[in-house]
Design goal:
Layout lengths: L14 E8 L2 E3 L6 E6 L3 E8 L5 E8 L4 E6 L3 E6 L8 E10 L5 E13 L5 E5 L2 E4 L5 E8 L7 E7 L11 E5 L3 H4 L2 E6 L3 E9 L4 E8 L3 E4 L3 E3 L9 E5 L11 E5 L7 E9 L12 E9 L5 E7 L2 E6 L8 E7 L9 E7 L4 E4 L7 E12 L2 E4 L6 E4 L2
Parallel strand pairs: 3-9, 11-17, 19-23
Antiparallel strand pairs: 1-2, 1-4, 4-7, 5-8, 6-7, 8-9, 10-12, 12-15, 13-16, 14-15, 16-17, 18-20, 21-22, 22-23, 24-25, 25-28, 26-27, 26-29, 29-30, 29-31
Length: 392
Amino acid sequence: MFSKKTNALSLILALLMLVSVLPNRSLTAQAKDKELTMYVDDTATIYADVGFDYVYGSAFWSSNSPAVRITSRYETHCDIRADEITDGMTAIITCQYKVEMTSGWKKTELFNCYVTVVGRDPTDITITPEREKTNPGINVGLSVSVEPLNAERNITWDVYKHATSDIASSDDIVVLDRGSGFLLSQRYVIKPKKIGAYDIVATTANGLTAKCQITVVKPDVRLTKTKYVYNGNVKKPGIEYVKMYDGSVVDKSEYTVKYSKGRKAVGRHTVTVSFDNKYAGHPYYWGNITKSFIIVPKGTKITKVTKKKKGFIVKWKKRKTQTTGYQIAYSRNKKFKKGTVKAIKVSNKKTSKKISKLKSKKKYYVKIRTYKKVKGKYYYSSWSKVKTVKTK
């Protein structure tokens, strides 16, 4: 507040705003509504200059944004500091100036200075996490760190199928939050929908990139048993556990279990674990996971091995049900070392087999197992006990 002797020639109000940026930055405004661009952490001084005599005058300074903070207020000027990037918006510094003349005439003027705060060019960008493993339907949040601290933080996000330039579609990954603003532009939230591997790439305005590889897997389902021996009864393995990607165990109330029909005969059978979304805030993958178990034929045993000249005859116990044939293996190596074993298949109609064209007076080890062929695939029993024979 201040006063001076009234001058009759100064009844016409003239209020000018002078803006200067310190250091290494200056802007002179000859009228209101001037614009100013600053970097984060820059400071500036804005002046209000009254070019006439008055009895009373006062300036009221204000900022409409936390991005630009007024650090000091005076009757003729104010000091400001750029604290945050305005992210496409502008901060308005307003001077409301009031004057009163000796004649009683009063006048109030509003002057605005529009300030845009930008970041400096980034020198480095990192993404957190760099690798992530998850399940379909689980939200994944990513964030980036940009250097220096006052750097421009506007980030462009892209989602690719791993190790390719193919853009992932919304059928692969749903983007929940791309972020906006000075702080939120660093965050990216997605929900994977399909099994697979994806690269999430963050790019700065000046072209620096950082990448996170996301691997989307099904929850881990383990059966209590995955192999049975045929005995004519229905097989029904239980669920040992269902685990999410982080190792947490899913409660049994969160899923249902369905078994394939039959499950008596030799072959492959299935167990389907189904998740549903009946609970509010359900965090789990909604869908089906199918696991399988096998039933193998019952084994047999060697009843007799008779030596012959440069060979032998092997006899075994017949298996009438769920058996396509038998496989006989023999070797001169007691442990049936790889590369030393000879194996042959015979029909299930037979109970003996002559093996010939062997070396004379040599010791051989013999074993047998049953098998059944189902839809082109062989299912084997366990091997019988090993018998020995020495050829003539």
